[in-house]
Amino acid sequence: MSSLYKLSISGIRSFSPTDHETIQFGTPLTLICGQNGCGKTTIIECLKYATTGDLPPNSKGGAFVNDPAVADRSLVNAEIKLGFISVDGKSMTVTRNMQLARKRGARGANTFKTLEGQLAVMARGHKTALSTKNAELDARVPQYLGASRAVLEYVIFCHQDDSLWPLSEAGVLKKRFDEIFEASRFTKVLDTIKTLRKDMASDIRLIEQSVHHAQVDQARARKIRDKLAASTAQAEQYTGQIADLTVQIERLEREAERLFSSNQAFQRTLGEHQRLSLVRENTRANYDRLERSLAKVDWPDEELARALAQCSGDQEKTRAALEAAEADRASAADAMSDLQARFHALTREEGLLSYKQSQYGEKVARLAELEKTTTQGELAARQKTLDTALAAKDHEIAEASSRLRAAQSSLAREQQSRAHYMREAEECGQRARELRQKVALASADQLDAERGELETLREKRAKRSSGARSDELQAQLARDKITLARLEVENDDMVSKLASASSSAELQTRRDVLRSSHTRKKNSWRRNVEAHGPQFQQLLGVDLDPASAPEVLESRIRELEAAQKKDAAAEQSAREEWSRAAAQMQSAEENLAAARQKLSQHTNAVSAVLEGDLSEYENAVSEAEEDHRAAVFNLNTFEVTRSYQLRAVEIAEKSSCCTLCSRSMSEQEKNRFVHDLQAGLKALTAEKLRADVDATDRDVAELAAIRVDVVQARKLAGEIAALEAKAAASKSAHADLSSSLETLEASLKKTTAELSSLQSLREPVRAIASDSAEIDKLEAEIKELEGELGDWGSEVPVYELQSLQKQKAAELRAVRQAVSDATDEFHFLQKDASRLEGQIKDKQLLISNLEKALGQTISLQGRITEQEELEKSLKAKIKECETLATEHESLCASLTKEVEELQRSRKEIEESAKKEIAALKAESDTLERLRADIKEYEEKDAAVVEDNTRKLEEVQKEIEASKATMENTEARIKQLQAEVNDFKERERQMRDNMEYRQLEKELDRLEEQLNELDVHNAEVEKERYEVASKKLRDQISELTSSLYGKEGEVKQIRDQITNFQKELETEFKDIDKQYHKEWVKLQTNMLVSNDLQTYSQALDKAIMKYHSMKMDEINRILRELWNQTYKGTDIDGIEIKCDVSNSGKGRSYNYRVVMYKKSSELDMRGRCSAGQKVLTSILIRLALAECFGQNCGMIALDEPTTNLDVENAESLAAALNNIIDFRKNQKNFQLIVITHDEKFLSHINGDSYTDNFYRIERNENQHSVIKSLPIHLMQDD
């Protein structure tokens, strides 16, 4: 359970900002008293601020802190330190710090700051800080005290201004009771549960929809699966039919191939005839073309060939001469370009110099004109005139200002005199009124009546003053009081010594603690400096200075962060460029590799057919086609050749002569001739010729098949060269970017490493700076404590002084008890005597005043007349002062106007003169600038003009010579071009003649070949072949159409199957699992929602039960306290009524305080007196503290007797006494009573519970100080 044990205050309200005033809270009672305005309520305010962080009412803007103007300081630091025992028995200290700064200027507002505080715990002799943030302190301190923030603010440490809150308006009362009961916590829980159930209901509706949708999707998926099975079966059926049709089509195609293979002869004949016809037509067209444009020559072929060769040689020589002439022309053109460039440059320079020359003439004329109009020395003379005029005006202004100040001084004197006379006149009037009142009080009849009443009272006193017991009690009281006085003096001396010794011991303890902290901090600081100083010096180049190191480090870190950001951006940009270059290089290499692979494939395909290079492909194709034509020709003429050779053999054997030339042969020649012919016949067979045709046909087909490979290979060869160049360029660019990226990465890495090193120093440097500042602070505090310890001196140990003080206190209590018993007995005897004595003294004083008034009546009348005359004379002086003040005011106004007029005139003169001076200065600057420009032209540009003109003429002559050379060269080139063209025409004519003769021979050869082909038989065979082929094609077409139809249907069915499967895989994937999952989720959410409903109802009932139990307990305690305290008969009892309202937003409680009068219930608000309000509020707070403060058993009462009469104040004291007796055995019960009424404190019987009380008073500096005094001093007072 928690309790308070010490409070220290500095700089709060009227407490000094340089000293710490301390108060120790005892158990079960702490009494604090003092006059009004001495600072008693500040104790409550400090306790409330320390525990909750809330400032007192109406103290915004720094009113809670000692004002800097009063303290004569520019800055006031305030501190509140509260020591307490937490609910878990730990010793803790909370410190709150504030600052109030005075702004400059008389009307400047103060600046209030809430500084960081501290919450510390003492564990095993060491102080450990738990938190320094004010927000955390506001939350954690109430937790450690075991009471809510509302209970601390409204019940335990309630401010005097808010003490009547139980009888405030309904809204305020409800708000505070809700905070005390922490209704918002329970309401939030119920609202949260309600929100959860609402959200879950929404979720359940959504899940139900999901379940419904899943169920519908499940049914749709089932239908799609059925359609999928039917489509699959139909597709399989069509697939079988397609297989049968495919077999039939393949059989018919094989028959067509056999038919085609058996009818190739006529195809070859017709093909050859068609080919030869086309060749003949092309050759005939070329022949006709040449014949139309040809100039025929009759030279033999050999002479024509020699003439063509000679023409080609002469053409080459002429072309070489032409190229040399064109080279000369290009060289001359380059020279001409250079000359023209020089000419243009000199022309531009000529224009610029001409412009400068014209400007020079204009400036010379302008200079002559300005020298005529400008007078030397005029500027200085005008400046001197201005200074003289301004000095005269300044003298006039000074004289007028002096007269104005004299008039203002006279006006001020008259106003002061008038105010002085008015105060004296008012004082005279006041004195006259007081004297008149005294004269009115004097009356002789009243004096006689008062004297008679005095004699009556003296007779009553004489009758009641006799009695031996009274004398005996007086004697005993006199002896006991002497003893009590002696013991009190001795006890005060002992308390003073003990306080001195305690203060000295406390100071020594504080000094030792500070020294220990100083040593630890010093060692920690030294270790940090030794550990991080070299690194700091290495990285920053300066020694580690604790004062400036953080700023230097942060500055360098900011520089490096900016550099790192810049390097990172550059590195990122370079990396992106490198990535793009790498991608380009990879793409180029991949394209090159793909091209090479394709080239290899095409080359391999060509190499398999063609031996040699790709350039020989066309020659190979021509040779193969020629071989094929020869083989076909040999095969076609085989029978004719064979018959001719057989006929030749037969003629040779019969006639011994040659069939072709009819030349006769010898026997030997005949035998050899026959042998050769027979050998040729044996070697030349139809099968061999047919094989040659097939072989050459295959060669032609193979060469035709690789035509695409040859074209692609040649194309790829050109592309590969370009790709290789592109790959090389990409690789070079990538290498350059890699080098640049590595440089940037190294720079970024270096900057990052240095930044990381510096950032690692940030916390150590901050710690060093913080430790250094704290070391300086500790050294200052130690020095201050040592100075204070020099003023203390204690020879006796503290524990001996405490023992002696306890003995004296025991003796004092015994004597006090004896005095108290005698006083109680004597009180009954002396009560009436004291009352009569007081009445007699009052009558004697009244009679004395009446006698004095009667004796002073005449002198008072004279003094009244004197004061009236003095008042009249003072009023006349006031009127005279007002007249003089009016005259002085008029004079001041006229002088002020005169001064303003003089100042305005001076300003106009100064501005006008400044404009004239500025114009003169501008003319002077123009003269100087013109002279400088003219001089510069004469020294630099005049000579350049002549030189440029000479160069321009020389360049023009060179251009004319170059033009003549170029014209001669151009004429020679034209002559050579005409000769070359003539040679070309002669060469073309010769070549056309040779080609014409070759085409003529070719036409003859083609006619012979066409005549030898048997075209008629081939066409008959073709007709039979086409009929059979058409029949087969029709059958194949019919079957193919049927096949394509079936395949189309199968494809459509398979597309449907694919769509069904895709739909099942996408829209209805795992639909059964989803349905089951959503159904389980629905059931789970419904069960959880029902559980939340049950829990919400149970919690609501528990909250109502808790609230009703607490209200019953509060009202029970309130009834007991009211019956013990209130002594009136108009109110039988009071209660707190709680009305429950169930609105749409939930349950809420409305509170009101009621009183009972003869079984009638009435609201107390607006019906009770001020004293009843105070008493009711105090008792309600006591009842709330009893109910809600089990763990925090303290309560502070600030001025509890306000508006209470004596009887009710004594009753309240008795009730508090009963509460203390009832709870004094509770370790953490603490009642703190703050009041100015020390009689009220005496009725509490404080001496039974404590030996001292605290008195707050103002010292000579008007600062509040707290003094701890023995309890008996309060009773004597």
UniProtKB/TrEMBL annotation:
Q: Catalytic activity, per the record? A: ATP + H2O = ADP + phosphate + H(+)
Keyword Phosphoprotein in record = no
Judging by the UniProt lineage, the source's domain of life is Eukaryota
Where does the UniProt annotation locate this protein? Chromosome; Nucleus
Gene3D superfamilies for the chain: 1.10.287.1490, P-loop containing nucleotide triphosphate hydrolases
Q: May I have one GO cellular component term?
A: condensed nuclear chromosome
| Principal cellular location given in the protein's record | nucleus
- Mind listing the GO biological process terms from this record? base-excision repair; double-strand break repair via nonhomologous end joining; homologous chromosome pairing at meiosis; maintenance of DNA trinucleotide repeats; mitochondrial double-strand break repair via homologous recombination; R-loop processing; telomere maintenance via recombination; telomere maintenance via telomerase
Question: What are its cofactors?
Answer: Zn(2+)
Give the record's keywords alphabetically: ATP-binding, Chromosome, Coiled coil, DNA damage, DNA repair, Hydrolase, Magnesium, Meiosis, Metal-binding, Nucleotide-binding, Nucleus, Zinc
Q: Which residues form a coiled coil?
A: 235-269, 397-438, 578-627, 734-795, 833-1042
Under the GO molecular function aspect, what terms does this record hold? AMP kinase activity; ATP binding; ATP hydrolysis activity; double-stranded telomeric DNA binding; G-quadruplex DNA binding; metal ion binding; single-stranded telomeric DNA binding
* Family annotation (SUPFAM superfamilies): P-loop containing nucleoside triphosphate hydrolases
Task: Name the segments for region: Disordered.
Answer: 500-528
Q: Which stretches make up the Rad50/SbcC-type AAA domain?
A: 6-255
Among PANTHER family, the record links this protein to: DNA REPAIR PROTEIN RAD50 (PTHR18867:SF12), RAD50 (PTHR18867)
Q: Which family is this protein grouped under?
A: Belongs to the SMC family. RAD50 subfamily.
Q: What is this protein called?
A: DNA repair protein RAD50
Give the organism the record lists: Clavispora lusitaniae (strain ATCC 42720) (Yeast)
